[in-house]
Amino acid sequence: xxxxxxxxxxxxxxxxxxxxxxxxxxxxxxxxxxxxxxxxxxxxxxxxxxxxxxxxxxxxxxxxxxxxxxxxxxxxxxxxxxxxxxxxxxxxxxxxxxxxxxxxxxxxxxxxxxxxxxxxxxxxxxxxxxxxxxxxxxxxxxxxxxxxxxxxxxxxxxxxxxxxxxxxxxxxxxxxxxxxxxxxxxxxxxxxxxxxxxxxxxxxxxxxxxxxxxxxxxxxxxxxxxxxxxxxxxxxxxxxxxxxxxxxxxxxxxxxxxxxxxxxxxxxxxxxxxxxxxxxxxxxxxxxxxxxxxxxxxxxxxxxxxxxxxxxxxxxxxxx
Length: 320
What we know:
mainly alpha, 1% strand, MetI-like fold, 10 helices
């Protein structure tokens, strides 16, 4: 009895790649290069447009607190006060939003029933779709009047602390109010990233903690939070990047002033983005170039924050 051998198929050559793989790899590489080119183009545009005012500026651009950039002969302006207000507002938003976002993410992933978790996740994500101008209207129309008695109480009871020294603003249009509004705006970003990281915690880690007699909170503290620490930090930094560049909501809440103050209950501080939005309609000549120079500083700050976030996330994933 004879048997016929099954036809053998030669394996594909190692040096030969399919057309689809080559096309996809080229498309992905081209997309990455395009993003870098766009980023470089934005940076080059800001530098070129900002250079006339920077070269003619008679003040220290980094530390000076004044802004008299429309004078053609001797413009004098600095971004120091604006950079301080920008970082302060974003820092307040980060301190307020991060604990709440982590708590919401933990509740959605480990405590809430499935239907409630789905509803809460949808509602939190919906916050990201609300326009910033709506947040600004909510801040000046509802939140600020409600905070007036709160600020008065803080000034009365905690006035010995420089952050809450009185008298409190009668309109509550302060850097603290802006920070609260920004905290609500960045809440969905931090919550979404934290929720995704908490979902990725290995089931074996959680079951091992529970098998050793740990309660649910102890399991979260010992297994979930250490695993998701880098993701939470990365999400917080990305949220801070959003807070640094927010324009309309901050411009509607804060008054147009250039004061460096740690007092959270008085009006005075302003952010770079808010200052640009308020000054640009009336800017001429060197004034427009000076505002673009301020935008260049904001671009650099935001870029550094986002690069730091990506580095932290990548390092955490590598360690995991």
